[in-house]
């Protein structure tokens, strides 16, 4: 779709300290430059740990790197007595463009609820951060409810507090495909992405549905990215493990349909 620039997003999870992050981003920028990567055709973003963000911000600004970045989570609160939490205001101040919200590891390991995800989406939008809203079913959900029911319900819930046309990204990440080496098929990803686009249309209208990027995530690698990108409703990828390997990640960015 000409209205949607593909987005390749690398979620580093709890990997790379701020010194390693600087070295990594420099190498990544070189690798993409070498390949004459067309940054107007594909947007690339990295999601380092919070403690790396200031370093990444400084490096991206100093070298004018065509690289977006963001955080892996944020607090639903603005400020105050929330020990260990990070405000969207702080992320905006560090020039983060994006923030990942509701990753399955947050939902399962930190018991994040749909209500919290919805509150975090509102918090992100308040600070003009583009939320990357993660949804996806477990293997048990898939067996019990079929492919789209849980992701569709999670997206509806996540958008509960969004009332105006908002700049958002949706990431469909089947939990069974994350870090398992067993990616969904492009057809499976397309089926759910199409259902998620219907939700966007019903909740935020045709215009938002047309321009919102829906990413696939779950064991994406350089060898399987092209299949996903050929699908009409898949507009990019959220990449975990393979985003920590320069060759793999730049291979994904350079996908050929
Ligand atoms: C993720 O955690 O967002 C993810 C997609 O992980 P991986 O690429 O390692 O499956």
Automatic annotation (TrEMBL):
Show the coiled coil region(s).
none
Q: What is this protein called?
A: Triosephosphate isomerase
Q: Name one GO cellular component term.
A: cytosol
Q: Which terms does the UniProt entry file under GO BP?
A: gluconeogenesis; glyceraldehyde-3-phosphate biosynthetic process; glycerol catabolic process; glycolytic process
Question: By its UniProt entry, which SUPFAM superfamilies does this protein fall under?
Answer: Triosephosphate isomerase (TIM)
Main enzyme class: isomerase
One MF annotation (Gene Ontology) recorded for this entry: triose-phosphate isomerase activity
Family to which the UniProt record says this protein belongs: Belongs to the triosephosphate isomerase family.
Instruction: Identify the InterPro entries for this entry.
Output: Aldolase_TIM (IPR013785), TIM_sf (IPR035990), TrioseP_Isoase_bac/euk (IPR022896), Triosephosphate_isomerase (IPR000652), Triosephosphate_isomerase_AS (IPR020861)
Which organism encodes this protein?
A: Cryobacterium tagatosivorans
Cell inner membrane among keywords: no
The domain of life is Bacteria
Query: Function of this protein?
Result: Involved in the gluconeogenesis. Catalyzes stereospecifically the conversion of dihydroxyacetone phosphate (DHAP) to D-glyceraldehyde-3-phosphate (G3P).
Annotated substrate binding sites: 11-13, 179, 219, 240-241
The gene is tpiA
Primary location: cytoplasm
PROSITE patterns, A to Z: TIM_1, TIM_2
